[in-house]
Write a structure and sequence with these properties.
It contains one helix and eight strands; from the N terminus they run E-E-E-E-E-H-E-E-E. With 102 residues, the protein is mainly beta. The protein has one domain. The longest helix has 10 residues. The two termini are 17 Å apart.
Length: 102
């Protein structure tokens, strides 16, 4: 694995996708406010349904204990190194085979 910025990704939580990709919670920039934070959601796929969480431990609390969805991204693709998998994922989602909390 190449060197990755700890500022953008939460490397403490790995989501194993059915494609073979490993996903990590990722910070997103809100284009309206300029705020960079993890985005979690109880449901829904819009900024209006999301909470922006700057603190990694708080984000992990929502995802691990309250079953919130989180924006996550692969560092690279298991099938094509030029494409990254990115989206909104819940640990209990069918496409997430397992997760690891380090």
């Amino acid at each position: 694995m190449s060197k990755v910025s700890n500022d953008k990704y939460c490397l403490k939580l790995k989501l194993h996708h059915e494609s073979g990709d490993v996903l990590y919670p990722v910070k997103m920039k809100n284009t309206d406010t300029g705020k960079v934070a993890f985005r979690v959601s109880p449901g829904g796929n819009t900024k209006q349904h999301s909470l922006e969480i700057e603190d990694e431990l708080s984000m992990l609390e929502y995802v691990l204990k309250q079953d919130y969805q989180v924006r996550a991204q692969s560092l690279n693709s298991a099938t094509d190194s030029s494409k990254k998998r990115s989206g909104l994922y819940r640990l209990s989602q069918r496409s997430i085979l397992k997760h690891e909390y380090i």
